[in-house]
Amino acid sequence: MQDVVFLLPTLLEAHKSKRAALVGMMGAALARDLKDTHGRLYSCKVIWQAWQAEIEGHDGLQALAVELQRLEVDRREWKGLGRPAALLAARLRAA
Fold first, then answer.
1. Which of 20, 19, 39 is closest to 29 using CA atoms?
2. What integer pLDDT is reported at residue 38 of this predicted model?
3. Per-residue confidence at 27, pLDDT binned at 50, 70, 90?
4. Which residues contact residue 65 at a Cβ distance below 8 angstroms, ignoring those fewer than 6 apart?
5. How many angstroms separate the Cα of 58 from the Cα of each of 22, 50, 54, 93?
6. Considering only CA atoms, which of 66, 3, 2, 81 is closest in space to residue 35?
7. Does residue 30 contact residue 43 with C-beta atoms inside 8 Å?
8. Cβ atoms < 10 Å from Cβ of 18
9. Which residue, 58, 24, 60, is CA-closest to 42?
10. What region, left, alpha or beta, does residue 15 occupy, with left being phi > 0 and alpha being psi -120 to 50 degrees?
11. Which residues contact 2 (CB under 8 A, 6 or more apart)?
């Protein structure tokens, strides 16, 4: 998950012809890290929405990075957390 957090800012610099592939790789990595086998498309959507917010002048990528880091801490401290992807989705809806 830290790799995704690290790569999020590169979306702003990525050429538009490479951006979709980068989002796809990050979405796949995020879904894999969250053990959400069917969540790749959702992860990609979340990343695209963060990028869209960013180009509209909001802190979309930074906000997503913060939520991902927060989730990583929760996963370490909350050993019984069964569905971290669901927790992330709930937090993103609430934000």
1. 39
2. 86
3. very high
4. 5, 8
5. 21, 9, 5, 16
6. 81
7. yes
8. 12
9. 24
10. beta
11. 72
